[in-house]
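Note to self: keep these together.
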Amino acid sequence: MDPNVNNKALFMDAPISPPPRRRPWLWLAAAPLLFGVAVLAGWLWRIDIASWALQRELTGRGFDEATVTITRLDLSQIELAPARLGPDLAAAKITTDYDIGYLLAGRLDTVDIRVLGLEIDISSPQKGALGRIQAIAAEDPQTERSVTLPPLPTVTMTDARIYSNIEPARLDFRFQASTRVVDGAQHFTLSKGHLADRRDKPLFHPLGIGAEGNIKGSKATLRANLSAADEAVRLVISAGHDLQTTHGTLDWKLSPLVLGGSGISPSTVTPLAAMAENWTAGLVAQGNASWSPGTQTGTVKANLAGVAGAVKGLSVKDFGADLSANFSVADKTVHWKARNVHAELHAQQHGLGLRGARLSGQLNGWGADASVMLEHAVLASADFATLNLSGHALATDFTALWGNLVTTALDGRVQATTTFHHDLSAQSGQAQFQLDPLGFHRTHLQPNHLSRRVDIGGILDGSVAATAEAVWKGGNLSGKTEMVFSKLGFSKPGLALRRWDGAMTATQSGSNAPIAFVFNGKNGEISAQGREFAFGPIDLAGQWIDGKFDTEGSLKMLRHIALQPLFAPLGLRFSATGDTAAVDFTADIEQDRSTRLTTKGRFDIAKSDVRARLTVPPMRFTDSSLTPAKISPLLALADSVAGALEGGADIHVTAGELSGTAHASLDNVTIRKDETRIEGVSGRIDLARLMPPLTRGTQTLSARRIIAGTELLAPTLTYRIEASPDGPLPRLAIEAARVGIAGGSVSLLPTHIDANRDDHDIDLDLDGVDLKTLMDLIAVEGVSAEGQLSGRLPIHISRDKVFVRNGELKAAGPGVLRLRSQAARQALSGGGAQVDLVLDVLRDFRYQKLTLTINRLNDGSDIVRLSTEGRNPAVKKGREIHLNVNLETNLDKLLAIALDGYRLSQDALRATLGGVTRK
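Structure:
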């Protein structure tokens, strides 16, 4: 209103009443009263009015669930109990002390705020009261422009708590904090901080946290420490930040930490270390970081030493390394190195020492891509050759991992490469292993150069290479391994293998599936105990599961290379079951598709002990199908054999020595050699020992007859085979031998035929032998005789020559002797009256006594002297006459019987010990 305008003009048309009486005084008196009443009412209802106004303001700001109760309000203090902005942000009590004058003057540093029981639930920080506060801050333009912190009131928080109830971050942080102005700087303090991991499987045990910091202008500093295990573990952090330039630095350092032993138990730091409860370790670590607009970088350095412990059969001692890393937040990369990596590793009683290893790698995109490089790693062991390792691994986006590892040893003579690929999301992958061919040579590389624990007891030659492939998915593992050897040779005293080629493959279709293996070996040669053999091909297939295996296969040919082989070429079909300690096996031995022997036994691997039972099924020999020579050339002792045989043997081989027992039954066996034929041989042969063969006591063989120039009936032989004092070959001890001949018999007196000797003396006793048959045997031409002779023929055999020394045969009674040889008469005619008388007498000589003295001299000549007493009734009136006549004879036919029997015995004995032939 313009003060120059006359107020009365405004009311010029209104009626004029007289002013009330005393009005100015009443107004002056009522105004103060009304003001006082208003002030009094406002003071009396101040808490309700303030609560209503505050609640309306909070609701208008979007805090719809806010509940704030003012319990005190005066000129120096306001108290809220409780103060709740939402279910995620509340305090039990907030008390604010202030000076109304300073407050009206804008002096916030004079305000003192005390907060009791602050609780902040960060389970869903984008929702609730916390979400609304972030939205208001984003809308306030002051938050965009301000780079310095305005002066703040003094704030003290007691029993404050920040927590989360949602997996995987169920954390509970309780603390006390304060902020105040000191020397113009805002000073922050956090004390009695206690951070707990409330998850079912906590990552760490409760941590103690303390911190303090200052903000002055745009400069902010912070110093904090974290502690665990009653402050035995301490981490100190120092940081600085410029709010104006957004530059900053951070340094941290872990106090020297000793775990295990007399130090801190690993499980007191983190429950994840429970499996390493008995481990020890020393750790020193520190790092720093810096940041500026668009750039955040940092470094970490650590020294790990004295790590020792064991897990799942693997023990580690003195593991250590120098570790360092550089990271860039802007690039999202980490480059790290581990130098001087060293350790002692022990697994299943085998020790390894790792030294000089250097690893380096990087993470891209905070681990989305990662790489690791291994260099200069040396594995040394008392059991194995020193190994040099190098390789690299790559990972992509936490889903794929691949790489390779190269292992070399012995100056590069041994080299193996392993490549692998793994899909982390699908838990699947594969790996390949390749061992480059190892060239074994007696002067360069041997298995014991690779491992001192390997002692093959000989020299290895040739090349061995191996490859392997493994595929896994969801915990299921399958794979294939192949080993190839070329021109393989092995030699040791008494045994040599030469230039053998072959391959073995093993496959597994799943973790719980058996390992199937196949072996194929080509032709080869082997010598054992001075004997040469050719063999091959060998094929076998089988499977291995739970430490046990079974297999079956065949050996197509095994041949003894010798002028007189031990056996004819044979083939084997076999099967075996067992484990690493022992193997049970069976085998069928085939020869010429007509002979099949069966053996069943057990091989004790640890003792190198073999026990087997060989069964010879009934075999029938014929000239057209099966002969002993087809089984073994050593059995080619006759031109032909017919009849049946069966038997078996229990064989024991230990430390390379053969022992055991054997038996054979002969049934109606007929043997023919040269002009000699033995028919109907029957009996059982029991050997108590194989090498050299020894019989189980005395045994007997019998036959139906022997045809050797004459017919020998019902021969029997009682014998034993025993050790000889003259050499390694056995000898035949004949206790009794008898054969019927010419109506009588011939017996062999107890004697020995020794395969180690070429000279033998044999005494033959003749009993009741027909004289006429004997004259035919000794080829006395033109002489016929009747009667029976008995006596002894001492025979000496030297190699293939037979000598008779003063054999004497006497007639058992009277008989008749007649000389009818015209040649003899013509030769003796004209010899005088006495010769004519003898010739006349011998026409029909009736003897009372008759003796034949038989000799075969060293020059091969035969001398047979006939001495007789008797008469011819037609001559000289039957006067008694004594005659001594040297007969012209040939003893070959008679002595051939003894010689053939000797040869058979000698050859059989020598054949049993490996083809020692008759000299």
